[in-house]
Every structure is written in C-alpha cells, then in structure tokens.
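Structure first, sequence second, as always.
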C-alpha cells in the first residue's frame, strides 16, 4: 500500500475529469455539468434520443473520467433528450 501512495503526485495546474459515480445522482447530466463547473472545467452537451433511458440521463463523457485537464478545458457530455 505504501508503494502505491508513494507514487501519488499532486498537480496544481491540472484537474481530473470526475467519475459520474462521484455524485448522488451520477447519471443526471445537469448534476454532472454542475460538478465540472465546480472543478473549473467547462461542459459541452451533445444530445441523443433513446427509447430505453429517460431524458436527462448522462450516457457518455469525453475525455473519460480520470483524464487530467487544464482548468477551463471542455468535457463533452452526451445526454438523452
């Protein structure tokens, strides 16, 4: 465990794209977009239709969670309309 912790590095000029699971309602596109704003990232929303999922559901995130970005960069969210 200490070997893993020893490799952690804080990068003050980078922000990690969060997992949608970090939210209470992790599949809600608006809640996730708000979390991105709180972290200093921008969001761009792309929509698609679905007969399976309810409107507002977040179905994809690009770049993927865990990617390190510079504050102000854009994360593209695909949300069901």
């Amino acid at each position: 465990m200490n070997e893993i912790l020893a490799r952690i590095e804080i990068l003050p000029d980078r922000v990690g794209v969060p997992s949608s699971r970090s939210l209470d309602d992790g599949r809600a596109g608006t809640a996730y977009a708000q979390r991105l704003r709180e972290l200093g990232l921008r969001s761009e929303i792309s929509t698609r239709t679905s007969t399976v999922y309810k409107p507002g559901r977040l179905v994809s995130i690009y770049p993927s969670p865990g990617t390190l970005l510079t504050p102000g960069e854009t994360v593209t969210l695909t949300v069901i309309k």
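Margin note: Helices lie at 2-6, 29-38.
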